Amino acid sequence: xxxxxxxxxxxxxxxxxxxxxxxxxxxxxxxxxxxxxxxxxxxxxxxxxxxxxxxxxxxxxxxxxxxxxxxxxxxxxxxxxxxxxxxxxxxxxxxxxxxxxxxxxxxxxxxxxxxxxxxxxxxxxxxxxxxxxxxxxxxxxxxxxxxxxxxxxxxxxxxxxxxxxxxxxxxxxxxxxxxxxxxxxxxxxxxxxxxxxxxxxxxxxxxxxxxxxxxxxxxxxxxxxxxxxxxxxxxxxxxxxxxxxxxxxxxxxxxxxxxxxxxxxxxxxxxxxxxxxxxxxxxxxxxxxxxxxxxxxxxxxxxxxxxxxxxxxxxxxxxxxxxxxxxxxxxxxxxxxxxxxxxxxxxxxxxxxxxxxxxxxxxxxxxxxxxxxxxxxxxxxx
Length: 382
Fold this sequence. Notes:
Elements: E1 9-12, E2 19-23, H1 35-46, E3 54-59, E4 63-64, E5 67-68, E6 72-75, H2 84-96, E7 101-102, E8 106-109, E9 142-150, E10 153-159, E11 172-177, E12 184-189, E13 192-198, E14 205-211, H3 215-228, E15 238-240, E16 247-253, H4 257-267, H5 270-285, H6 291-305, H7 327-336, H8 340-345, E17 347-349, E18 366-373, E19 376-381
Parallel strand pairs: 5-7, 6-8, 8-15, 11-13
Antiparallel strand pairs: 1-2, 3-6, 3-16, 4-5, 9-10, 9-14, 12-13, 17-18, 18-19
Helix pairs in contact: 1-4, 1-5, 2-3, 5-6
């Protein structure tokens, strides 16, 4: 009710470094998703633009006559782009490798990154942009909830769909309750994400993506379903904390990091930012316990590598509103960047007229990252 409309900005000539105009430039403000621009610079520097993340299918105990003598392992390697189509390909490759059965079961390893139940605990339970973060992520750690009404009764489904497949899942359940509010409730249970939804909010039918809090079980269940389509019965997946001695049978590599970051900046994908930020920190200094610790390492790097004075970021996505950054520091970072590749992966914006229509034949375009939180709107770029 008492918004001041106050702004903080810093403007400089990117070629000469000359400061042109500033206002409240040393006031720390929440950067929102502009944080992802810093994360992109961090990941490019530490991991390299050509870095690829690996997802592995491995076995223990060897293979005899097509039967795995121990367990089949699904090993996450921090790939934020893993989807159901890729798991289907891995299942087909496992079959092509001659595997048709397993004496043990399916084990899932997600410990290549810290296992965190969500990005920002202050967010509502049901928002899809605030999922769990671990070393494995399927469909950006979102599960598809769909409801249909017929003859006054609802049917609901929970699945890990892609454009090719729609494998149902049981680790996430939904119960319809007779209430007006809240629309959703969530409860964590051993092996389950338990959801409820208010009947009065459903209408005739619809769908939405809900966040996943148990990514290992999610990926494991979908992989087991897809492997079952090839006659390989894996049973219910089990998440393990320590990798046993194993032999890799199938390997999937993600696309190059530069392309992953381009999509992250374009679509402002929080999970991608957190996973690549954590991966960069682990390569730089070793394992960390959580996002705040990883962001602290990124702050330290930004101070030395980008010339920032006082970055105070608490995550890699900007979702946490405890983060602060000054306009002066952000502009210092942009001036410090001499790599044209970073500018190329920023989203390109054109100017619009008073009615919101794109202005034709523009001579000036902006390459930038935007950000939005409650009562915060941010922009940084060239």
